């Protein structure tokens, strides 16, 4: 799969922008703050239904505008499809597939991306929420219908927390919280499906992660990943369902006292290890970069092996500047066989020559195709 055309209207710092990327490597060169990342952010938004830089959709709309439009033509196996998202400052966002009205949650059925950006260092060093998002973005791309499951879980969790904040311990003792039982059932059902898919994902990522890390950093390191659930000791979906239900029942008074749901997929974490030690806290800066990048490459190769869409669109946002020359070359070799890779760089010389197949210059919200010397 590849993007054959991209059109932006009032997205970030772009009043208008139109490009026709080719198959292979598409390099966006420009100084910081000119809009390079905004271009790849728009593509990634369609696949993941969110930004890798902000959780607020309105932040993607150009200042002074009421709506932003992202329009992408995709090509795969001789067929094309047009996706269009309209992000509204007020009111619900809108979506179209081939000019027919659709839902944004449908988009992962048609487009798959894997993005690596400097923010992804926080996958290793940061808070659990980033690692949960990494897992959920991937399970949605593997199985697009899970976009609805994840969305419904978040909605039920919010409703349940609202009820917990207004409930009293005496209501539990008097048996007056029948409504909470209904939310418990939905939370457990949805949460069990999410946990099952996360476990499957991490098991399937193990071998590609090892291969990717060896390709980038060398074969003298061992990497592994393991989920750290808030509900321990449940290995099957049936065991997890029962344990989740039991945890909610026995912890109800404590949850009411604190006003939040204390167990479930929203409280899980992932532990990444390097040579038997937790990468968080032990890995050097260079090892952290290599680890985070390897995770994304592993994800891309996993999606490639399963998807009927072909290769995911690979996005490397400001990556090469942080790597030494040897790792730059290794990374270039690792991504060379993907159908389409978008690369952003402040300096063209940071990008290996083999990847400079199509170059666009980005300056102050305008994009121009390279026609001469890159210097």
Would you kindly provide a written description of the structure presented here, covering whatever features stand out?
The chain has 375 residues and is an alpha/beta fold. It folds into 2 domains: 1-112 and 307-375, P-loop containing nucleotide triphosphate hydrolases (Rossmann fold, 3-Layer(aba) Sandwich); 119-306, Up-down Bundle (Glutathione S-transferase Yfyf (Class Pi), Chain A, domain 2). 42% of the residues lie in helices and 23% in strands. The chain contains 11 helices and 15 strands. The chain has helices at 36-48, 122-125, 128-142, 146-166, 169-173, 178-217, 237-250, 252-258, 279-282, 285-306, 325-335; strands at residues 2-11, 14-19, 24-29, 67-76, 79-88, 94-97, 100-102, 113-116, 223-228, 269-274, 277-278, 313-317, 340-345, 358-363, 366-369. The protein has a 6-stranded antiparallel sheet, covered by helices on one side. A 6-stranded mixed sheet has the order 8-12-13-3-14-15, with helices on both faces. Strands 9-10-11 form a 3-stranded antiparallel sheet. Strand 1 (2-11) and strand 2 (14-19) form a beta hairpin. The longest helix is centred in the middle third of the chain and has 40 residues, at 178-217. It is globular. The two termini are 31 Å apart. The mean pLDDT is 91.
